[in-house]
Amino acid sequence: MKTMVANARRKWADGLVAVSLLLLGTILIYPFLWMVSVGFERTANVNAPFPPRLIPYDFSLFNFELVFENGHLLRAYWNSGVNAFFSVILSVSSALLGGYAFSRGRFKGKKLLFILILATMMIPFETSLIPMFIMFNNFGLIDTRYPIILPSIINAMGILLCKQFFDQLPEGLRESAKIDGAGEFKIFFHIFMPLAGPITATLAILSFQGSWNSFVWPLVVINSQDLKTVPLFLSQFSQESGTPLMGVTMATAAVSIIPVMVVFLIMQKYIIQSIALSGLKGE
């Protein structure tokens, strides 16, 4: 009897949790669905739909056709994609190498250097914006891709995450490889890197999202229309006497978020693995 009561209570509790999560998920996804709906609303550029509705009153592809008609969005897609690709490569590579060095390396000043790297996380980006602009301007790199890509080499959060990940792997793996005569680079690339898939995917998603959504820094260093990124392209839809074109803006926003969603959906299983492995400590 007690077992039946306990099972019934457990089912009620599980059902309550499921309903609560469903309601929370609906609340969180509603703004995105409304954004897509406004993008398909032909008259949204004249009269913003109110109250918000998920089904367009006057369904049309007009706003999306207007976004793609001059090819500027495709160029912005290309620019953001190239910037994000190289930013991910540099950011993930430096984070993995730095995390391994701080996790398994033995050198003087290791703790102090690690503290200094972590301290950079407390410096607001706005305080370093002007010095970075002056530095890249002195090198003649303003209005190029380099100011957007090169800063991704410094990834303090990535180094911290990688160090914690490598700390959890058994030290016996490294010791066995050293007994077999393997050097540090061989140990890293042939033993630790194959095991670092989850943390690598996590860093790749975070780096890709940060690069793709970056707005302030590209706005400062990019002047040429041919180098505009998707966020900069999106910000240009404030026309018609300064009144934002809501339908076109929402259509552009809906299209611009697709790459981030695709990357996340492809790599989400690796994030789950990374979270699961974070609770395991190798001996």
Describe the structure.
The protein has a two-stranded antiparallel ribbon with strand order 1-2. The protein has 283 residues and is mainly alpha-helical.
List keywords for this structure.
2 strands, disordered C terminus, 14 helices, 283 residues, mainly alpha
**How many helices does DSSP assign?**
14
Beta percentage is under 5%
Low-confidence stretches: 279-283
Distance between the termini: 45 Å
Fraction in helix: over 70%
Helix and strand pattern = HHHHHHHHHHHHEEHH
Tell me about the biggest sheet?
Answer: 2 strands, antiparallel
Produce the secondary structure layout:
Layout: H1 2-39, H2 62-68, H3 72-104, H4 110-119, H5 125-138, H6 146-149, H7 156-167, H8 171-179, H9 184-195, H10 197-213, H11 216-221, H12 230-235, E1 238-239, E2 243-244, H13 246-256, H14 258-277
Helix pairs in contact: 1-13, 2-13, 3-7, 3-10, 10-14
Q: How do you describe this structure in short?
A:
The protein is 70% helix and 1% strand. The protein has 283 residues and is mostly helical.
